[in-house]
Amino acid sequence: MFTSLPGFREFYPEECAVQNYIFDKWRQLALRFGFQEWNAPVLESLELFTEKSGEEIVQQLFNFEDKGGRKVTLRPEMTPSLARLVAARANAIRRPVKWFAIGENYRYEKQQRGRLRAFYQFNADILGEASPAADAEIIALCAEALRAFGLETQDFRVRLSDRTLWFLFLESLGIPEQTAVPLLSVVDKLERLPPEDLLKAAASALAGTACDAGQVIESVRAFVAFDSLDKLEAFFASRSDTLGGKIRERLGEWRALLNILGAMGLANFLSLDLTIVRGLAYYTGFVFEVFERSGDGRALAGGGRYDALVKKLGGPDMPAVGFGMGDVTLANLLKDKGLFPVYSAAVDFYAIVLAPECRPIALADVAALRHSGMRVEYSFKDGKFGKLIQAAEQAGARHVLIYGPDEVAAGVVKIRNTQTRTEQLVPRTSLMEQLCAIKSTPT
Ligand code: HAM
Hints:
443 residues, alpha+beta, BirA Bifunctional Protein, domain 2, Rossmann fold, 2 domains, five-stranded mixed beta sheet, 17 helices, 42% helix, binds histidyl-adenosine monophosphate
């Protein structure tokens, strides 16, 4: 027997229903926030990602050479494709661009809980707006996209951080900009690497500078211990040089961001967490990741500002901010919390046909009911009443429409309630009206 590849899921109807439930909520919410849907090919040129996404993703690519000798890859994420689409029509699209997408991505990762090789992501991005208002709108949509499923402050946290502030802080330690980027990759592993490996990684990132790796790690640990804006403001308040001024200006943008999110009633969902620096190479400003409140499990979502990417892909200077939310970790969490609705494949009505001469009448009614929007099944074979009723009950129908020779001759349909086992005869001329009334009656 063939099986699917490791890290790839198959979707039986129950699983498809779960997925559609998630996608429908994401889509409805994005539309409510005024975002428009877009999409792009899942197979892209390799270069789009080797250039733009950074080391970590490049190691995880599903890449190969196609029959035309092109170096291609399944997309590991959607952001570079989005930047390309926007870059190509930058002058024609209304700004700010507010776009969302739901699509499958592929990463050759080790399969584990919350991590697969093929997963779906809900992406939402705003391009063409540099102010913290856009960052706030993105963070608000991200938080609301979880609240839409009934998840609340006891369930998740948006951990906020800032690469701009990191660059300024590292500058204050005398670390030049070109060294700051590799050093942030080390910060990304601060909580994962054993101390000696961390020291080695920091020393390698700092090679060619006069900085001492041990001291830098100590300063970094002190910096990530700040867990509120008040504490950061107090720490940098006395610094009177130009860099101090720049840092205070940046903290003013933090204040603006938090004020907007506070006004939207989202303050309790946020925490300041400077250990978040994001693995992807293109982020430039505010960054964030969303985790379960307990801190367990892989990230539910991640995103941030990436102001240089559109220009790098041949477009104009265009600020951008967005996030991606995965379906795997979200589905795990919803399952754990019992927040999925009960799956039901039930049809509204099931018609059974007791004799061949009744079939044309039954089929005409089935077709009319389906046209009116009802979910209707019918028995493909004529047969014994008991067997057919059993099939109807297995299909989950609460009401069965019975077409026997007596009913057809009298111009009526027998409607049987499968729960109460009561039956009534309804003239075919008023069948639609009766079934509409039955359907709208609560169980
Ligand atoms: P990311 O942090 O790489 O960001 O992925 C975002 C989310 O996708 C993760 O938090 C996780 O829920 C899900 N995810 C990632 N990898 C896997 C995997 N192997 N299996 C299951 N789920 C996974 C990005 O992809 C950015 N492009 C997001 C973005 C959009 N930034 C700006 N706009």
